[in-house]
């Protein structure tokens, strides 16, 4: 996969109509529809402002929620247009449809330096089907396509990949940064390259482990997924999470790591609980976990060993919490890893989704080199999969 893609700076946009795919999939209050977190809109501003400064006419588009091809007033992008207008300090013209009469008329009248927003792309079921006719209609309003929604690059939808068949396609600053930092970590990492993986399920991370075994110097496994590996090593794991059908896989991976000389670190002690509850009393277990307990977090010896492995790293990629960090009594392991990354001096990359939430919640967000804006997308990136929304962009 080539991550070296043209960005908005490599193409002339002056006076041109630019179709800009944003990620305006913001959380909203269920009762009032008010936007409860505008981080994604704020994150889109640098690309938008650059395009407007270059005198482009910007036709922004996004999905919001999961309307599944149905017109749902509660998922209209109208509140996003309003918030974007407040943040930009200028009018955002809002189209009442996507590729209909209103959108086309407003796009045709759009002047350089002006911005408009189309209605929710997923109100039309052809968007997620990557329907060529829909993509063609969408692209017919513009002369250049700029993709800046990293959260959807792993999807081949009309607005994330299909339109690139009809328009010169480049990345905005958000995707540019993701490709730059994560692409480099995978292609040519500063070594030692340490991968820290956690979260609930082995099955979610199988392809990531497979890919990283070819690239990393050390793989650290924590979280609920670690117990399947511990069981495969012959330890008892009590009531901890287990994916029995992945035991053979776990054995294979550990054998492969050994054969390749990749260090493979697992927890040596665990904070356990008798029940999965925030109020459960933490009980420390070294080695084996008693029958009536479940592993909820990594223990102090493990924290020390994992932190030590991160300390000398050149690059650290982290995806998945070390324990049930949502419960304060079992958040120490995740917190300690965030701290270890923050103090490592390494290039630190945190995958989206739960790990990004954990790092933010625990107050270490500004200490990381990069926190990916896409959960599923960053996971597929680490899997080494071809991302349709990246593959469709022009090579540098
Ligand atoms: P993932 O979405 O796969 O990254 O998993 C994140 C979830 O894994 C979080 O909600 C954590 O609470 C959960 N998790 C982490 N460690 C454990 C554990 N030891 N037992 C159960 N769940 C866990």
UniProtKB/TrEMBL annotation:
<dbReference type="InterPro" id="IPR001576">
    <property type="entry name" value="Phosphoglycerate_kinase"/>
</dbReference>
<dbReference type="GO" id="GO:0043531">
    <property type="term" value="F:ADP binding"/>
</dbReference>
<feature type="binding site">
    <location>
        <position position="326"/>
    </location>
    <ligand>
        <name>ATP</name>
    </ligand>
</feature>
<dbReference type="GO" id="GO:0004618">
    <property type="term" value="F:phosphoglycerate kinase activity"/>
</dbReference>
<dbReference type="GO" id="GO:0005524">
    <property type="term" value="F:ATP binding"/>
</dbReference>
<dbReference type="GO" id="GO:0006096">
    <property type="term" value="P:glycolytic process"/>
</dbReference>
<keyword id="KW-0547">Nucleotide-binding</keyword>
<keyword id="KW-0324">Glycolysis</keyword>
<dbReference type="GO" id="GO:0006094">
    <property type="term" value="P:gluconeogenesis"/>
</dbReference>
<feature type="binding site">
    <location>
        <position position="122"/>
    </location>
    <ligand>
        <name>substrate</name>
    </ligand>
</feature>
<keyword id="KW-0808">Transferase</keyword>
<dbReference type="InterPro" id="IPR036043">
    <property type="entry name" value="Phosphoglycerate_kinase_sf"/>
</dbReference>
<comment type="pathway">
    <text>Carbohydrate degradation; glycolysis; pyruvate from D-glyceraldehyde 3-phosphate: step 2/5.</text>
</comment>
<feature type="binding site">
    <location>
        <position position="122"/>
    </location>
    <ligand>
        <name>(2R)-3-phosphoglycerate</name>
    </ligand>
</feature>
<feature type="binding site">
    <location>
        <position position="155"/>
    </location>
    <ligand>
        <name>substrate</name>
    </ligand>
</feature>
<protein>
    <recommendedName>
        <fullName>Phosphoglycerate kinase</fullName>
        <ecNumber>2.7.2.3</ecNumber>
    </recommendedName>
</protein>
<comment type="subunit">
    <text>Monomer.</text>
</comment>
<feature type="binding site">
    <location>
        <position position="205"/>
    </location>
    <ligand>
        <name>ATP</name>
    </ligand>
</feature>
<keyword id="KW-0963">Cytoplasm</keyword>
<feature type="binding site">
    <location>
        <begin position="352"/>
        <end position="355"/>
    </location>
    <ligand>
        <name>ATP</name>
    </ligand>
</feature>
<dbReference type="InterPro" id="IPR015911">
    <property type="entry name" value="Phosphoglycerate_kinase_CS"/>
</dbReference>
<keyword id="KW-0418">Kinase</keyword>
<comment type="similarity">
    <text>Belongs to the phosphoglycerate kinase family.</text>
</comment>
<feature type="binding site">
    <location>
        <position position="295"/>
    </location>
    <ligand>
        <name>ATP</name>
    </ligand>
</feature>
<feature type="binding site">
    <location>
        <position position="155"/>
    </location>
    <ligand>
        <name>(2R)-3-phosphoglycerate</name>
    </ligand>
</feature>
<keyword id="KW-0067">ATP-binding</keyword>
<feature type="binding site">
    <location>
        <position position="40"/>
    </location>
    <ligand>
        <name>substrate</name>
    </ligand>
</feature>
<feature type="binding site">
    <location>
        <begin position="63"/>
        <end position="66"/>
    </location>
    <ligand>
        <name>substrate</name>
    </ligand>
</feature>
<feature type="binding site">
    <location>
        <begin position="23"/>
        <end position="25"/>
    </location>
    <ligand>
        <name>substrate</name>
    </ligand>
</feature>
<dbReference type="GO" id="GO:0005829">
    <property type="term" value="C:cytosol"/>
</dbReference>
<feature type="binding site">
    <location>
        <position position="40"/>
    </location>
    <ligand>
        <name>(2R)-3-phosphoglycerate</name>
    </ligand>
</feature>
<dbReference type="Pfam" id="PF00162">
    <property type="entry name" value="PGK"/>
</dbReference>
<dbReference type="InterPro" id="IPR015824">
    <property type="entry name" value="Phosphoglycerate_kinase_N"/>
</dbReference>
